[in-house]
Specification:
homotrimer, elongated
């Protein structure tokens, strides 16, 4: 399975062109859209989001992950194998948290270049062909690098920020709920927010946080929009108190 | 065919994770996205919308339908078979109108539970596996219930409200056009609106209503946005006059 | 491969119903979403966008292209074969630029009508079945017309307007970059904009234009939104100066 994790946006031609490449090069491999709206031009926030969602997918999955504000510049193109899954994308920190949490990993720098490589769309011209190749079972077309290649050692293990806002106005943080004390409260938008197991039983309009279906601490307002009620967006700071 | 009808939103990881489950459990069954933006947290409006669209699909189709503000609470999980199509989702009224209009039906309460069942994402953990099972031709993993199980007898047969707003700013109502007098006018946003067969021939900016391609009465403004011109949104009241 | 190019919007049931038809009539043919947000009700702008993106797809691709404000009126339904690719949609100019740039072409008027043809959704009821037929290798169900059938000879070869705005706030124009002098500057939103090869190396907030990955001149602001910074939208005029 190839899994798409990008900031290409839902609209427009980018995801469609990437899928056309995958269809041509790996027609038998199913493709799943995970995020087309990963944190835009923000590989740091995206790194925590990707690390939360990736382990849910089957071993052998190939992630085509593109949050790449430096496309056309000097950042390397990389392949990470971590705990039996593959990740193809820019070497700008996007895979840092995955890499850090992996028990076993290896990293490659992609040295192959397409015959026609646009300056602005490596997702289509470089990363998609490489992902198709790996999904077909071939070796990554790159050179093995030491495990500290293109890393971001200064990033924290959990990120006390909003890293995603969903359709319901819920705000996912870069904090793993399992790493927080069971009675921890979060402070966001100048409000102290208690933990709850689920929405039901809470009064409408109440703010709460809970462990979401992927393990992240997520802030919500029952039958309302946490983003509006608390003034939250991707990048908003969150604090943990008890 | 499995058909998705949800309020998960277009963005974010929810539909992608559901599709990954379907791909794993029923890889040979094609999946169609019908609505990812069904009326949010509003199973009543969604019930009229789903009942309008479902009969267009082939017999044997399995609808994975999730508009589920009570997830994690006491509402049951159900499977409805109605006139040769299957519906899997929450027992909160979402299938009421389908059920009421069906000539033949049976209803099951889903008693199977996944080994790992999140509190907030039954679409992925409960309804998707059940839909995959049924699409593979297996029996629904539930117990048969009387036909008045989880019903909403107090809801009207047609709903005089806006139940969906599309990309063009057109407002679908929960009224079947065939149930209205041929000269009926609709009142919405303090305007009386005449019936027309189609857009062409109307002056730009004129408001009209017509039978849409699924049989619902739909309000539009030629070359404009009815939602903006008339101040309409999901839930706005509509009246029928002659 | 069938490629979808429409203004149906990302949301709602339209694309899903079209795909259900294609799945039923041509189940072995992969379907790619190129644009669901082509310029709304604007076949002229859409014509330049489609002509830029189509040649990137493999020979034999069938484009189901619907930007059709006159649906239900007098405009013909057409099939264009141009340089080995097929295009199915309304004869309202949407294929004008493709046709004009083609070395070899033939055009057909679709005379087949579905048993049940809605007045407002020819994408589902008329164009999708025809596209499926052609994708299966059958002859277009139409009558051959002279090459000046349903043309728009008065439209320019390149369009000095914004024809698409993407998720990053970049504004694509209807101008092919290869047709512009290498030192050309664009004027848009009362700003003179210099050409650049790529984003990297430009200061954050700087406006630039470049040849995008499809060959169009595209206006962007590094790490910002050109649409907001320059006040651009689909239809905004652009001028070329040196």
């Amino acid at each position: 399975m190839i899994v798409l994790f990008t900031d290409f946006g839902l609209a427009g031609p980018y995801t469609g062109q990437v899928k056309a490449v995958l269809q041509r090069l790996a027609p038998a491999v199913p493709v799943t859209d995970l995020f087309a709206d990963a944190p835009m031009r923000n590989p740091r926030a995206a790194s925590y989001l990707l690390a939360a969602y990736a382990p849910w997918f089957p071993l052998g999955s190939v992630f085509l992950a593109v949050v790449d504000p430096g496309v056309g510049g000097e950042r390397p193109a990389v392949v990470l194998e971590a705990d039996g899954r593959w990740y193809v994308g820019p070497g700008n920190g996007l895979f840092e948290i995955l890499h850090r949490r992996a028990a076993a990993s290896q990293v490659f720098e992609i040295v192959w270049r397409a015959a026609t490589l646009s300056a602005s769309f490596h997702g289509r011209d470089l990363f998609a062909p490489v992902a198709a190749l790996i999904a077909r079972g071939e070796a990554p077309p790159g050179e093995k690098r030491p495990t500290d290649f293109a890393r971001r050692a200064d990033w924290p293990d959990d990120l006390a920020e909003v890293v995603y806002v969903d359709h319901y106005g819920n705000a996912m943080t870069g904090l793993r709920a399992a790493m927080l004390p069971s009675d921890a409260r979060l402070v966001a938008g100048h409000r102290r927010i208690d933990r709850a197991r689920t929405f039901s039983g809470m009064p409408a309009g109440a703010a709460l946080w809970y462990e979401n279906s992927t393990g992240l601490a997520e802030i919500a307002v029952n039958m309302g929009r946490a983003t509006d009620a608390l003034g939250l967006a991707i990048g908003s700071a969150v604090a943990v108190v008890s």
